Amino acid sequence: MNDSEPLVLIVSGPSGSGKSTLVQKILQLPGTMLSVSCTTRGPRKTETQGKWYNFVSEAEFQRMVTSGEFLEFAQVFGKNWYGTPRKSLDDALAQSKDLVLEIDVQGALQVKNKLPRAVAIFVLPPSREDLEGRIRERGQDSEDEIKRRLEQARQEILNYNRYDFVIINDDLERAGQEVQQIALASRCRISRQELRIREILKSFGG
Asked: Which helix (H) or strand (E) holds 131?
């Protein structure tokens, strides 16, 4: 195990794929914590500062970029900026917890490049039609926005093979179990257990 790096679990997927629900399933496991992203967009009615996002001005966001305070950052749909603060890694390490990141494909690839041991999970809808239905049910988007989200989804899905695991979210109960099993199995990787393994070997005389 690398003492300077907690277990990082990345969850990505197209808008409407159900990734937020599956992130909540991971967070039900003891010893996990959510990385709270920063964004320049305004909060929605159901959102509060510091729960899923820290809402900051564009000037503050750019200051954080210049100061190197982000593990990853990206501009989404050419409008709002999103970023994962490096401080989240320090907090997870200090608390001996696994860090869960819900970020888009751009961000996930940036994090995997910087943290190769991070475990990347891609959440797929069962079909385009299913995803379109979910987006329409939310009632938040115009027709143009729906078309843009579906095209964005297609582009994101093309990157599926850059991930370690794929979950097809056609049954929430099964998908929830799968994402928890991935998190639990990742804790047992040899690379994360080396210090403990050496201690056990010492008890046998080395």
From this structure: helix 128-138
pLDDT of residue 78: 75
Beta bridge partners, 5, equal none
pTM: 0.88
With beta carbons less than 8 A apart as the criterion, state whether 16 and 112 touch: no
* pLDDT greater than 90 at residue 89: yes
Distance CA 77, CA 170 (A): 27
Q: What distance, in Å, lies between the first and last C-alpha atoms of the chain?
A: 19
Instruction: Average the pLDDT over 182-187 and give the result.
Output: 96
Longest dimension (CA), the chain: 68
Radius of gyration of the chain (CA): 18
Find how far residue 82's CA is from the centre of its chain. Answer: 12
Q: Where are the domains of the chain?
A: 8-35+95-203
What is the spatial distance between Cα 9 and Cα 23, in angstroms, rounded to a whole number?
10
**95: CB partners within 8 A, 6+ apart:** 33
Overall fold of domain 8-35+95-203: Rossmann fold (3.40.50)
Distance of alpha carbon 167 from alpha carbon 150, whole angstroms: 19
**Residue closest to 186 by CA, chosen among 117, 138, 135, 123:** 117
Quick check: 180 and 30 in contact, CB under 8 A? Answer: no
Dist CA 148 CA 93 (whole Å): 38
Give me the sheet containing 37-39, strands edge to edge: 53-55, 37-39, 80-85, 70-76
For 102, the token pair is 């819900």
